[in-house]
Amino acid sequence: MNSNMEETTTLPLNISDVNKPMIFTNRLHMLLHSIALCFLFYYRLCYFFQSRATPPLLLPWILVFLSEIILSFIWILGQAYRWNPISRTVFPQRLPEDQKLPHIDVFICTADPTKEPTIDVMNILLSAMALDYPPDKLHLYVSDDGGSAVTLNGMRVAWKFARWWIPFCTRYRIRCRCPKAYFSSQESDDDFGGDMEFVAHRKMIKEKYEVFKEDMLRFREDEVHSGDATGITSQNHASIIEVIQEDSRDEIEPVNLPSLVYVSREKKPSHPHHFKAGALNALYRISAVMSNSPYILVLDCDMFCSEPDSVRQALCFHLDPKLSPSLAYVQFPQKFHNISKNDIYDSQHRSAYKVLWQDMSIITAYSLLGTELEPQQQFGASNKLIKSLKQQNFTPDLMNDGKALPDEETLLLASCNYETNTKWGQEIGFLYGTVCEDVHTGFMLNCNGWNSVFCDPSKPQFLGNSTTNLNELLIQGTRWGSGLLDIGSSRFCPLIYGPQRMSLLQSLCVAELTYFPLYCLPLWCFAIVPQLCLLYGFSLCPKVSDPFFFIFLFIFLSSLTKHLVEVLTTGGTFRKWIIEQRIWMMKSVTCHFYGLLDATLKKLGLREGSFMPTNKVEDHEQTMLYQMDKYDFRTSKMFLVPMVAIIIFNMSCFFGGIYRVASVGNWNSMFMQLLLPCYVIVVNYPIIEGLIRKDKGSISTSVIILSNFLVIIIHFILSPLLI
Fold first, then answer.
1. Binding residue per annotation — 145?
2. What transmembrane ranges does the database entry give (predicted)?
3. 104-186+193-466: CATH number
4. Which of 101, 218, 435, 478 has the smallest number of CB atoms closer than 10 Å to its CB?
């Protein structure tokens, strides 16, 4: 690797640009907002030391004060992202020639062919096989945690189609190399629109793609009709490893393709399998004895390579001699191709990928040197694995033996007992203990002295399918919320474990990510407590005539304005800003709250960890509502009832509060508490719309009844406790 770097051109492979105007704006906002928060805390604390004729409302005041402290705490953590914004540019054309490029292993994980359609997974696989990279240096591994014959057959069929698809992409320099995405768009044909040879070739490839799809669908139907009498299930099956080597000599002239390996690790109900992290570690071990590439590309099963040079862009950092000695991974933002114009579910996560820092590993290189224990105590009993880890230039011959089925020692690496009494998942590989294994592993790599790079090119390098319905959005949010809080409440707490091993700013960034679900606590408080006090005429905010009123108003407007500026400067609109505010509220009072509850129960030993894959099957009815910018409220009552109840509660308090204020005439002291429910109602008007809509995605009568019942409970049970 060092010789490769020495022979590269002296021109830099990448450059970094610091956004100085944004740094000034961000730090000025931090200063002013922090000063305002200090005044707010002073005002709240003074309340407890004031003498008054009537007994003070301590409980509501304390709850609101604690909520403001939590909001301020998360805000302070989030400022670490904005302290020094940097953008990066790469120059893949300056990389060494192909024969000097390193080998790359590509990992793709799937678990359920029902929720993760095999045809879509195979399209991801084909996009990776067709990358603009030397095929003899590209090795693809698909982990099938479901042990499904449908997935294995899909890989065999995909291998046959790849012998036609890859030469077509190479010959005509096709940019989008995912067949499904390519054939659904005509953009890539502009350069060859009048070339009859190209038109004929494209037609032939499309016909073969249709046959490719039909073969997989037919096999799946046969599997469903035949059933399974073996007793093998997704949670109970032996390890299977197969090198895909279909003979297609009669179809086309020989084509040099990347190597392709199917892996289904052994699973037993009595053994923990550690979800995706366990699957990735199994691939890591198996790839070490089959291809032993120094770099790994990890793809989600719904995330295809949208640019053929995406690997080369990452190598612009890994082959940079100034970065490579301590560079663990390069991360690209997740972007999606199925997003509507207005993106009503905030599925593209603009704030996270355009402003904040994400820690999902895309390309990873681990250091396995300097260990203190015996190799077997860390990596297990496989001599082949230990040999591959110790020898940097070790090249396994198993891939070149022409064997479709690897030997017993390779199968052992995928067994459920292999990791017993080793450091896998604890100190080595992808770490266990949370369903957010990417965040946990990235954080620990940074703590161990490794650096990481976030690269966001103008053209998206990877495109995927995002959630486009409320149900999957909230299920996914619950899983993420629970997993992030697992990290934040563990011994690897970023605020305690991080500062001793990494920079303070890095620690604060990871801490904000792990504690972000705690927004649920202050949002539940601000959705109920000030509104109840409004109904009963108790003020929790300064009077309009009080100088502190402008402090409260400044903090409120400062937060909203800063968010709006960030949305507009990253290509968003005013409507997008409203949508992000709405989704933040919806997720906070539902999935983040349930994620906190789930993490708490796991911490107390009252619940075991679980992982439910996001349903990636396209529903045409849901898609139609999404494209019409209508929320589909066909989700669980546990999600929907709290949202609807909060809106009904705020509406009743708002109109009741206006009536009371108009009768008593205390607008001066109640203005802020009238502003809050008004803000909640205006931002969440689609929920009100869902109450009166008549389509299938509207809010059901049973949800409305339960929500009103919950509102009654809040009014008549919580009121005596708070007031």
1. yes
2. 28-45, 57-78, 516-536, 548-565, 638-658, 670-687, 699-718
3. 3.90.550.10
4. 218
